[in-house]
Design a protein that fits this description.
It is a single chain. The chain has 496 residues and is of the alpha/beta class. The strands form three sheets. Strands 1, 2, 3, 4 and 7 form a five-stranded mixed sheet that branches. A four-stranded antiparallel sheet has the order 9-8-10-11, with no helix packed on it. A two-stranded antiparallel ribbon has the order 5-6. β10 and β11 form a beta hairpin. α6 crosses α8. The N terminus and C terminus are likely disordered.
Length: 496
């Protein structure tokens, strides 16, 4: 039968590393019911998995206070023992790699706003750049997709908005419009664009909501189904039944799988689990929708005052990590209960609470590619295998990506000197420049290259950049910034 997770300790009990160390063991579960249940005679992936959700996905795991200075000093001393390898490279997993990573982030981005330290909420209700959901340093896995730097592998998904999401959108129309998503169908892109930003930066993988279907009548039964929105019954809560009734049966163009988005139980109190099948991407692609893998995310993407709930974006990224194979038994020492081991406190971690040993506000909102080999050995290996089947390469030669030169931010917005490379999602006035042999930028003119903003005024911050190269913050690697994508409203950023 389905197992229920043990109740977690209250926040006051887990605010210190000592408390974490003394916490009772969590409920363990076997691989046979961790992420996916296969039933003889049933359509593949048709039933909700019998999964004990990891503690890292529960919404109440926060350390809202800033890291104490003494802790940072201790981390500096402990860093001396770090050999530059992954968290488990010595044969015993430690926090040394994670500590070194956080120290590097503090040095590269002092004063950075970490949502984890603020209840998971964005800094304000104003329009937020895609990068604001994640950590300031997003280390890439070189050659992950088997293409040239800056080129992408695109995986397309069929997105289903259940009744809870539809009702939620009607209440949050203004908040979605503020973020640039002005319709019910486009609301799905608010979370997808942010997750794709992370996958593009770290793996050269684009996750695309190729088709969005909204179902006001698609219910959930979390209260009666041990926290799961649906099961194998073909009733009003069943995603595949709803798609079939609408005639959505052909999986062509949605190779990645099905993603059901909701915001939780109708009673407002029952916790609804999010879950996904391990290695689910591309299973059943090119055939029937009935055979596509289904992942479910049940989390409200907005919090108080219309601020983005970054934790909801994190949950979707976590489930995407599962469908790309993290963390299968091939990860051995780095995997714990089909998640990353607790000393790798990233998006895929089994239990994020011990991350207090690294920093007081908890786990990292990124994939810790420098602290774990599973991303290269499992996720990237799978991506390279799928290149010839269900994924679509987006390259310079086939026009799938825009391979224009750098754009550089002009100091003061106009006429000043070049200050730094601008990331593609940053909204700044830009100047069109070219590389010189020494790697510096030579600007063709002292103006903005003829570019104008939406308000027809040079130097304003409404102008979208189109940067292929150069990270927006110092990073340990020099992978080119990824090319510009079409905005949610269908328009393209102005280019010089």
């Amino acid at each position: 039968g389905r197992q229920a997770p043990l109740p977690l300790q209250k926040r006051s009990h887990i605010g210190s590393a000592a408390a974490v160390a003394s916490a009772p063991s969590l409920l363990r579960h076997s691989l046979s019911h961790m992420l996916l249940l296969c039933v003889a005679g049933a359509p593949a992936l048709s039933m909700a998995p019998l999964e004990t959700p990891p503690p890292s996905l529960f919404p109440d795991i926060w350390w809202p206070q800033a890291p104490p200075r003494a802790s940072r000093a201790n981390h500096t001393v402990r860093r001396l023992a770090w050999d530059g390898g992954s968290s488990c490279s010595s044969g015993t997993c430690t926090f040394d790699c994670a500590i070194a990573n956080h120290i590097a982030q503090e040095a590269a981005a002092p004063g950075y706003y970490y949502a984890q330290a603020h209840g998971g909420l964005a800094e304000s209700a104003a329009r937020q750049p895609l990068r604001s959901t994640w950590e300031p340093l997003l280390e890439s896995v070189r050659g992950c997709n088997g293409l040239q730097p800056g080129e992408l592998l695109e995986y397309s998904f069929l997105v289903v908005l259940d009744g809870s999401w539809v009702a939620h959108y009607e209440q949050q129309r203004r908040a979605y419009a503020t973020q640039g998503y002005a319709s019910l169908e486009a609301s799905a892109l608010m979370v997808f664009d942010r997750v794709s930003y992370l996958f593009e930066r770290q793996f050269g993988i684009r996750v695309k909501a190729a088709r969005v279907e909204a179902f006001p009548g698609l219910t959930e039964k979390c209260a009666a189904n041990n926290g799961y929105a649906e099961d194998g019954a073909r009733d009003a809560s069943n995603t595949r039944a709803a798609l079939a009734a609408r005639g959505v049966t052909d999986a062509a163009g949605v190779s990645g799988g099905i993603v059901r988005l909701g915001v939780g139980a109708a009673d407002g109190t029952t916790y609804c689990h999010s879950y996904a099948p391990l290695h689910g991407v591309c299973s059943g692609s090119g055939g029937s929708v009935e055979r596509l893998a289904l992942q479910v995310t049940q989390r409200n993407p907005f919090g108080a005052g219309g601020r983005i709930n970054q934790q909801a974006i994190r949950v979707l990224a976590h489930e995407m990590g599962h469908v790309f194979g993290i963390c299968s038994s091939r990860g051995a020492l780095e995997c714990q209960n089909a998640h990353t081991e607790i000393h790798i406190p990233d998006l895929m971690v089994w239990d994020g609470r011990p991350a207090a040993n690294v920093r007081s506000f908890g786990m990292f909102y990124k994939f810790m590619t420098t602290c774990a080999t599973v991303y290269d050995n499992i996720l990237c290996a799978a991506a390279r295998r799928e290149r010839a089947s269900c994924a679509v390469p987006l390259t310079c030669s086939n026009g799938g990506v825009d391979c224009t030169p750098h754009h550089w931010v002009a100091a003061g917005g106009g006429g000043g000197g070049v200050t730094r490379a601008a990331h593609r999602e940053e909204l700044h006035a830009v100047r069109c420049c070219a590389d010189e042999p020494d790697g510096r930028a030579a600007c063709a003119s002292a103006n903005l290259g003829g570019l104008v903003t939406a308000g027809n005024q040079n130097g304003r911050k409404e102008l979208g950049t189109n940067s292929r190269k150069g990270p927006d913050r110092p990073t340990p690697d020099t992978r080119p910034t990824l090319p510009t994508r079409r905005r949610a409203d269908g328009s393209m950023p102005v280019r010089g």
